[in-house]
Amino acid sequence: MTVSLLRNSWGRPALVACIVAVALAGCAGKSKRPKLVYEERPVELLYATGADRLDRGLWNQAVDYFQEVERQHPYSEWSRRAILMTAYAHYQANNYAEAIGDADRFISLYPGNPAATYAHYLKAICYFEQIVDVGRDQAATGQALANLQEVVQRYPRTEYAADARLKIDMVNDQLAGKEMTIGRWYLRQGDTIAALGRFRAVIDRYQTTSHAPEALYRLVEAYLTLGLAEEAKRNGAVLGFNYPGDAWYGDAYKLLTDRGLRPAIEPTGKKGGLLRNLPFRKDKAATIKPPSAPIEEPKAN
């Protein structure tokens, strides 16, 4: 009999009838999440029930059943599957620290297992989901980038790498946005030199992001403020060559011509350049689900 990853062939009434025992734990009048009463049950039934709970979006209950698989049948193929499923259920429940811990545990226990690919992927996605707006600390953003890049480097031809590449573009755009936010703040404070460093970082590290045109414009603006006309003109030329139809080039062109520094390229009014304007978004529905094939250890030669 085969039990699928997220769906099983067991009838739901039979599941409910077979597994109904839970115990409520309390401490000093404060209730805790119900825990399963220990009762030896077939591994297929435990796993199928956990999969059923996942199907129904009952993430905490799914975690309980998959953890019970590990507890009662620790050396089975089902136990290996259950670790990944526990990680996925924790991820869906927004318990990212727990999901990362589960993924790390699978990688530590089964580093050569084909499903370790998914553990690395899910770990990266957990960091990605914790990215906050550019006005706040970007620690999770840096961790997301490092882990997504690891997925691409380790498993370049997998579906996980394809999704990771898409998210890397979003993360880079986020990091560029953070640099721009700080650079604008320095400009408002009159610290033009510090602002230049931030805008230059965007051009050097994140030139394919949606922030590149503004960063080049800000460089033009800052260099003119410092009286460095040739530097301003050079950055204006880069902006005009790559984004002749962008509104930021129109503004830069006006700034330069007002100073008698007419650029060689006039604004076209048409969008141009290689810019990828990819808005940052999170969509758990797009996250790849754990592998449904049996998770078997490679045979030693």
TrEMBL record:
Give the Outer membrane lipoprotein BamD-like domain ranges: 42-235
Q: Report the main location listed first in the record.
A: membrane
Instruction: Cite the InterPro entries for this sequence.
Output: BamD, BamD-like, TPR-like_helical_dom_sf
> Where's it found, cell-wise?
Cell outer membrane
Tell me the keywords, alphabetical order. Answer: Cell outer membrane, Lipoprotein, Membrane, Palmitate, Signal
Highest taxon in the source lineage? Bacteria
| Membrane-related topology note | Lipid-anchor
Gene3D superfamilies found in the cross-reference section: Tetratricopeptide repeat domain
Q: Which Pfam families match?
A: YfiO
Q: Transmembrane stretches, by residue range?
A: none
What family is it from? Belongs to the BamD family.
Q: Which NCBIfam families match?
A: OM_YfiO (TIGR03302)
- What exactly does this protein do? Part of the outer membrane protein assembly complex, which is involved in assembly and insertion of beta-barrel proteins into the outer membrane.
**Binding partners and assembly:** Part of the Bam complex.
Q: Which PANTHER family match?
A: OUTER MEMBRANE PROTEIN ASSEMBLY FACTOR BAMD (PTHR37423:SF1), SOLUBLE LYTIC MUREIN TRANSGLYCOSYLASE-RELATED (PTHR37423)
Q: What is this protein called?
A: Outer membrane protein assembly factor BamD
Name the lineage: Bacteria, Pseudomonadati, Pseudomonadota, Alphaproteobacteria, Caulobacterales
Q: Which gene encodes it?
A: bamD
